[in-house]
Design goal:
Strand content: 15-25%
CATH architecture of the largest domain: 2-Layer Sandwich
Bound molecules: adenosine-5'-diphosphate, zinc ion
Radius of gyration: 19 Å
Order of helices and strands: EEEHEEEHEHEEEHHHEHHEH
Number of strands: 12
Oligomer: single chain
Strand order of the largest sheet: 3-2-1-4-7
Mean pLDDT: 97
CATH class of the largest domain: Alpha Beta
Helix content: 25-40%
Distance between the termini: 14 Å
Length: 296
């Protein structure tokens, strides 16, 4: 059975794993994201050790961004314009290829997680769906008609503009580009900025969660009418607050107001807006799925 390397390359931490599939993890390590030299060397060392014992068929990287995921582009496999210090214009795929001499699959962190959920999780059998993460940032990946959505660059759903109800919520938003875009109003740092404490410290009946459900529903309703997904998977630290889900589903139905007349939304929305089936393994399993595809 072929064995693959996967990297969930996050802005805070890297998770590297060796696995043949979802149920056969051989090894996993985590380390903080520091500089590209130090962090990529740690990943390369880990895979080289494994490769010497048991050859890897390919490596997959689900990467924080923005990135260049277009294989035809001269900067394919780069992290491009990230504000994260040291990481702008980093050739991630090039460095891995030069040292490991293996095929490397590469996509955004959220497209990777979406692919993992498609292969092994909550999106099996679908051809058009969206994976959203609501954590330190807010990002979305999509499969459309069976292919990961890239287009001009890749989707940046977290930066869509949503109505900001200033009478109810004077918090200005924290996005450095847009202030009160979706991420600026609804990712973890917005909750912390608005209520002066981290989301994990707020009680489950705090008004923060109804407001959060409202903001999340605005973006989700926009995604539903834009991409026509067959399901929406929502993960990330903020979605650990499970009380958000019922409020969010009801708010999506209220906002759509009967326009999308499909049973998935009208009658069975509990199975339409769902948490990731792979939990916090979605990212690294997505990287393994990218490696499987690169090996083909
Ligand atoms: P990252 O996005 O860095 O990979 P997370 O998905 O855990 O990691 O997101 C971290 C953000 O989510 C922080 O803003 C944190 O306050 C918030 N968060 C993490 N856990 C919870 C929780 N249980 N409830 C609410 N917010 C949380
Ligand atoms: Zn923004």
């Amino acid at each position: 059975m072929a064995v693959y390397g996967g990297i969930e390359a996050g802005g805070t931490k890297f998770v590297c794993a060796v696995a043949s599939n979802k149920d056969d993890f051989r090894d996993e390590i985590r380390f903080p994201t520091t500089t590209p030299d130090e962090t990529l060397s740690q990943a390369i060392d880990f895979f080289q050790k494994h490769h010497a014992r048991e050859p890897l068929a390919a490596i997959g990287v689900a990467c924080f961004g923005p990135v260049d995921p277009n294989p035809a582009s001269p900067t394919f496999g780069y992290i491009t314009t990230t504000p994260k210090p040291h990481w702008a214009h980093t050739d991630v795929v090039g460095r891995l290829k030069a040292t490991l001499h293996l095929p490397v699959g590469f996509d955004t962190d959220v497209n990777g997680a979406a692919l993992g959920e498609h292969r092994w999780g909550a999106a099996q059998g679908l051809d058009t769906f969206v994976y959203l993460t609501i954590g330190t940032g807010l990002g979305g990946g999509a499969m459309v008609n069976g292919r990961m959505l890239h287009g001009l660059m890749h989707a940046e759903m977290g930066h869509m503009r949503i109505p900001h109800d200033l009478t109810r919520d004077p918090y200005p938003g924290w996005c450095s580009y847009h202030g009160d875009c979706w991420e600026g109003l609804a990712a973890g740092p917005a909750i912390e900025g608005r209520w002066q404490t981290k989301g994990q410290n707020l009680p489950v009946d705090h008004p923060a969660w109804a407001l959060e459900a409202h903001y999340l529903a605005l973006g989700v309703a926009n995604i539903i009418v834009t991409l026509s997904p067959q399901r929406i998977i929502m993960g990330g630290g903020v979605m650990d607050q499970q009380q958000i889900f019922p409020m969010l589903r009801q708010e999506v139905q209220r906002l759509l107001n009967g326009y999308v007349q499909k049973p998935e939304i009208m009658d069975a929305i509990d199975a339409y807006i769902v948490p990731p089936a792979l939990g916090n393994r979605a990212g690294v399993l997505g990287a393994i799925a990218l490696a499987q595809d690169a090996a083909r």
